[in-house]
Amino acid sequence: MSSRPRPEAETATTRSPVTLPGLATMKRDGQKIVMVTAYDYPGALAAEEAGVDLVLVGDSAAMTVLGYDGTVPVSVEEMLVLTKAVRRGLRTPLLVGDLPFGSYEVSDEQAVATAFRFVKEAGCEAVKLEGGGPTSVARATAIVNAGIPVMGHVGLTPQTATALGGFKAQGRTAAAAHKVAAEARALQDAGCFAIVFEAIPAQLAEEIMPSMEAVVIGIGAGPATDGQVLVFHDLLGMTSGGGARFVKRYAEIGTQVVAGLSAYTAEVRDGSYPAPEHCYGISDEELAEFRSGR
Ligand code: KIV
Fold first, then answer.
1. Diameter of the chain by CA atoms?
2. Of 35, 36, 52, 60, which is best to mutate to test ligand 1, by the most ligand atoms within 8 angstroms of its C-beta?
3. Which residues contact 183 (CB under 8 A, 6 or more apart)?
4. Using CA positions, which residue lies closest to atom 3 of ligand 1?
5. In this structure, which residue's CA is closest to atom 2 in ligand 1?
6. How far is the CA of 37 from the centre of ligand 1 (A)?
7. Could you tell me the distance, in angstroms and rounded to a whole number, from the CA of residue 59 to the centre of ligand 1?
8. 31, 58, 171, 226: which has the fewest C-beta neighbours closer than 10 Å?
9. Which atom from ligand 1 is nearest to the alpha carbon of 229?
10. What is the pLDDT of residues 23-78, one digit of tens each?
11. Cα–Cα distance between 210 and 246 in angstroms, integer?
12. Ligand 1 atom at minimum distance from 71 CA
């Protein structure tokens, strides 16, 4: 199905905040939903200005902005600092906080307590957790029952990538495809308002979609989902290397950043920066008086 255009042109100043019923309406009307990750205030301002619908402060922050090897080490405290910064830059997109590995699996009580921190301290409207197995479904149920909207995440779930055999597409055998479909439906039955499908065959997503009442956001799941999400640094070309198959680079910011810093470095070293136009002045009289007071 091709996407329907939005009814009217909206700008950052006229747009109303995105709500859960609003997302459900977009799904019903076949309007594609745009989600992006962001990890700081300037990134949030850019997402607001671009008019995206949802912003996820993903635990991908562990790799993109904190320099860890994977998403496993990032802590709740680190995620909260980043999420609060994003909150300060957002007005209209729905803000989703990502519960980091180890912050929700232990018990329903732990999951609810962590989710509350993302809502009360960081101002999130919803939280996301990974996996569609019995533990994740139980935690999603508990958080939803506590009154916090939950976004699920199936397919490639980076927090448990080791158990999945690495960072690779999921659901590529009939049995594995059944597992992805069953997990998505279980999260939906748990009350998740949205579910991320990551790195699964496009045909599988298309097969599952008719049974999904929850909003489905794809990343490497083809065009059939209700919307798409990409990682900020990937889509803007701030990371080196090709990245996953599903990444499309819409800009080459990383190259521009290095070029700008290299030019600055060269000009400081050769003395051409700062030039007269970058300097403040003082009148001859004031300067003379300053000198006479030595
Ligand atoms: O952490 C993240 O950025 C994510 C998205 C890729 C969905 O989970």
1. 88
2. 60
3. 131, 132, 133, 137, 154
4. 58
5. 58
6. 7
7. 6
8. 31
9. 7
10. 999 999 999 999 999 999 999 999 999 999 999 999 999 999 999 999 999 999 99
11. 23
12. 1
Q: Please give the structure tokens belonging to residue 154.
A: 């199936």
Give CATH 3.20.20.60 domain extents, the chain.
8-251
For residue 102, the tally of other CB atoms under 10 A from its CB is 15
Task: Give the closest residue to 36 by CA, choosing from 199, 237, 198, 233.
Answer: 233
* Structure tokens, 194: 């949205």
Active site residue 198: yes
Closest residue to atom 4 of ligand 1, CA basis: 58
Closest CA to 122 of 77, 76, 87, 78: 87
Joined tokens for residue 243: 């990245």
CATH architecture, range 8-251: Alpha-Beta Barrel (3.20)
CA atoms within 13 A on the CB side of 260: 6
Rg of the chain taking only CA atoms, in angstroms: 23
Atom of ligand 1 nearest to the CA of 196: 7
Q: pLDDT (tens digit, 9 = 90+) per residue, 235-284?
A: 999 987 768 999 999 999 999 999 999 999 999 999 999 999 999 999 99
Q: Which amino acid is at 183?
A: E
